[in-house]
Amino acid sequence: MSKKPTTLDKVSFVLVVACAACSSDGAGDGGGGTGGSTGSAGAGAGGRVGTGTQTLEGTCPDGFTPGEGVNTGFASDGTEREFHLLLPDDTTTPRPVFVSLTGTVQAELDFAAQSGLDQLPADGWIVVAPMRSCSQEQRNCNGFGSIGTNDGRIWEPWYDAQFEQSDDAGPDARFVEAAVRCVARDWDVDEDLVFVGGISAGGSFSNRLLTFESDFYAGGVPSSGNWYEGRAAPLSPTKMDPSLVVLVWGGPDDQWPPVDPFVDYDPETKQASTYYAAQEDVVTVSCSGTHGHIWPTAMTGWVAQTLLSHPKGTPTSEFELTSPPSGFSCVLGEYTDH
């Protein structure tokens, strides 16, 4: 893929694709299910890709040059981190970005493939898939933070909450933003179209990024994420910047682990939806299915279209909720079905 040209073509265009409309069945976070099939995962009719009105300011650590594929040796918070980068064929205009966040079990690229997020570049997106510290260091990701990272996080995969709630977003949040900004140094990124989403622990981390860094992200998709009784969000009362949050709950079977579960995502997703819905500048879309604890692949195309329809700074009054794929229901505001 070509890197940022010296003279940029600021022509905007819209990709028109069909959104998949099929039901979803899944086996859990990395449990082998697919969550349903997905159609094209790009912008739907009326979506926006690469208007180029404002490009994100890019910067990288000294001596670091990002490239397509796996990136290693990225300096962040005194450690070296890794991330995967998936690029579209056409990078002549500013691109939207989706940060793909896996959960506890699935490897980073396995999640991107199962969810269909790895198909977004075919429709003009840049996809950044950060690696968990536990995955990068080949440690067990399925445990509490004290078994490995030992930096105050509750759950090992991501710094998605703390035992003692604070106003520090944490090292993972800083790493993810820095990685996106580094990509933006060499490829133009539309600063109004930077989104994040993930499953399970990745959904929990999405909650943290959206609440701590709403000035950076245009929105995102916390799918089956924890709210940790509020500890995913800042300790101090915080007014979020304008953004779009699409929450996903997998129905009564959305529990972890599948056998002898100790986490029920009914109250977790409900509490998150209540928080977001109370934010006057946040469009909250609360979606439900029956797919259990896995990213619902059948929703990916619709989700991508929905996100692109609401660039950062768009008034909440201008948001239009379209019908989700068959087998799913979505409402504006907090959940009403649980």
Secondary structure tally: strands: 11
Mean pLDDT figure: 88
Strand order of the largest sheet: 1-2-4-3-5-6-7-10-11
Give the CA-CA distance, first to last residue.
45 Å
Task: Please report the number of helical segments.
Answer: 6
Q: What is the gyration radius calculated from CA atoms?
A: 18 Å
Low-confidence stretches: 6-28, 30-34, 41-48
Biggest sheet descriptor: 9 strands, mixed
Q: Provide the helix percentage.
A: 10-25%
How do the helices and strands follow one another from N- to C-terminus?
EEEHEHHEHEEEEHEHE
Describe the overall structure.
The chain is of the alpha/beta class. It contains 6 helices and 11 strands. A 9-stranded mixed sheet has the order 1-2-4-3-5-6-7-10-11, sandwiched between helices. The protein has a two-stranded antiparallel sheet with strand order 8-9. Strand 5, helix 4 and strand 6 form a beta-alpha-beta unit. The longest helix is centred in the middle third of the chain and has 16 residues. The relative contact order is 0.18.
Task: Give the helix/strand layout.
Layout: E1 69-76, E2 79-86, E3 95-101, H1 108-115, E4 126-130, H2 133-136, H3 171-186, E5 189-199, H4 201-212, E6 219-223, E7 243-249, E8 255-256, E9 263-264, H5 265-277, E10 282-288, H6 300-308, E11 329-332
Parallel strand pairs: 3-4, 3-5, 5-6, 6-7, 7-10
Antiparallel strand pairs: 1-2, 2-4, 8-9, 10-11
